[in-house]
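Render this sequence as a predicted structure.
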Amino acid sequence: MALTAEKTTKGTQEAKSAKEAEGAESAFEAAFREHWPRLVATLYRLVGESDEAEYLALETFWRLHRDPPPLAHPESLRGWLYRVATNLGLNALRARRRRQGYEAQAGHLDIQENAPGDPADEVERAQEGSRVRLALAHMKPRSAQVLVLRHSGFSYAEIAAALGVVPGSVGVLLARAEKEFEERYQRLDPDGFGNL
């Protein structure tokens, strides 16, 4: 008999919990329908972008759904929603301002570091690069690889692993490659890329 009473009590509690959950869901839906348009409009006036305003409104309602506040009166819900929404909006504005500051600072640094120089220097640098690439293209492949890897910052051990040679031979290979490069580069006509 006691077992039946426990089952009945447990079933009653489950039914009560289900009704409470259903009531909470319908209350949430009602609050969503009632406050959504005005909350989005308020956030739009604050952040100035409709997509961001909708996102922040969704975040506000997500917080309400996930962790509803204890409210003494139903009218308190409106105040809670707008307080959370405006705090989220203000945080978004601060984050935007910081991001714009970082982007402006990065832009200034980029301009300073990559400022276009004298056009004649730029043309000369481009021609020099073309001559280097042409000399490398006419070298033995392994010699060109050794030079490119070494001037890209690779250690002798890394070069040896990349080329499949013993580390002790990298110095000799590098010296030979530098000599070959110098010879080929010197044969190039600075203006017209002569014969290699």
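Summary. The two ends are 105 Å apart (CA to CA). The chain is about 80% helix and 0% strand.
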